[in-house]
Write a structure and sequence with these properties.
The protein has 384 residues and is an alpha/beta fold. Helix content is 42%, strand content 16%. The strands form 3 sheets. Strands 2-9-8-7-6-3-4-5 form an 8-stranded mixed beta sheet, with helices on both faces. A 4-stranded antiparallel beta sheet has the order 10-11-14-13. Strands 1-12 form a two-stranded parallel ribbon. The longest helix has 26 residues. InterPro entries: Aminotransferase_I/II_large, Class-I_PLP-dep_aminotransf, PyrdxlP-dep_Trfase, PyrdxlP-dep_Trfase_major, PyrdxlP-dep_Trfase_small.
Length: 384
Amino acid sequence: MEIAHALNRIPSSYIREILAAASDKNVISLAGGLPDEQTFPIELMKPALERLSQMPEVFQYGATAGYGPLIQHLCERFALPETHTVMMATGSQQGLDLIARAYINPGDRVVMEAPSYLGAMQVFGLAQAEIVGVSQNEQGPDLAELELCFKTQTPKMFYAVPDFHNPTGVCWSLETRKQVAKLCYQYDVTLIEDAPYRELRFTGTMLPMASEFCLDKAIVLRSFSKIASPGLRLGAVSGPRELIDPMVKVKQGADLHSSVPMQALLLGLLENSGFDQHIATIRALYQGRYQALFDALDAQLPSPCRVYPVDGGMFVWVELPSCDTFALAKSLLANGVAVVPSPVFYPNPNEASSALRLNFTNAQPEELVEAVSRLAQGLKQAIV
């Protein structure tokens, strides 16, 4: 049977492929975006797990939008206006898919920063959207380029990760957040704000979400994979009711609802008095690992290369002299370190600048230092 035409447009995930190769015990992987298993709050979840045995109602079919008590809790936690609501999804990745299926027609234009999140490009590609890339600087998207794009391309939506962007780690400035919101209003573009790393800030001041400046022109995706557990497969989508309701209709046809027992478990975790300390512990752990990686890179990278500091999240971005980054990644893997080359993060890989994405959350500090040693050695052989 012939597969759908849209699927032919989507390459297999390079990151998934390299993670398989990086499973070799002799390879230190900086490739994946995996949270450390030691951060999973299993002890905090135990009371809620025990209560589930006394809650037979959560093992019945549930509401498509989500478990009522959890929805109410999240509306309060996110301080949503009365005109807004929350829908639970099987991971925020499903939330992104539901947005695309509810709103994207073949040929609709979607703006993304270039580079951008690979999973979002896959979703929009399957929806047969035309993806338009906008370059990024240290403050966020290039605002002049973004406005020109909005004005001339008439896109339907702008997908962005303002807090600790994947893959670059960039955190938008306050002024950029305000200006993006202004442009969304001016040109009637809906902002899709993806916030999986927002809680992982380990230095600096928490900034308002970009969507707070354009509340009725934005849909927000939040993930619990980085602060609870990826295996829970739970994410939340919030926004004006009139934007969320069509997505609920799509989800009903997709899977009826996300796991109700897991939603009840998540609610118990979020209401646990130790949850705030759990988040603080994760931040401290990741800050230490980031610092170990950054200091080693700063000390050992060849001079043509540049690493950008970050204030949170899970990734750093290393700029390189022009080179074949796929060949480089392959040679580095043979040298015992797994990385992700920049072209996989661009709508048009041929437009990618030479760079590598490095993850620091799923390796011990001593492993990170050793990985940088192997990386620096490989870079000196390949590009210097």
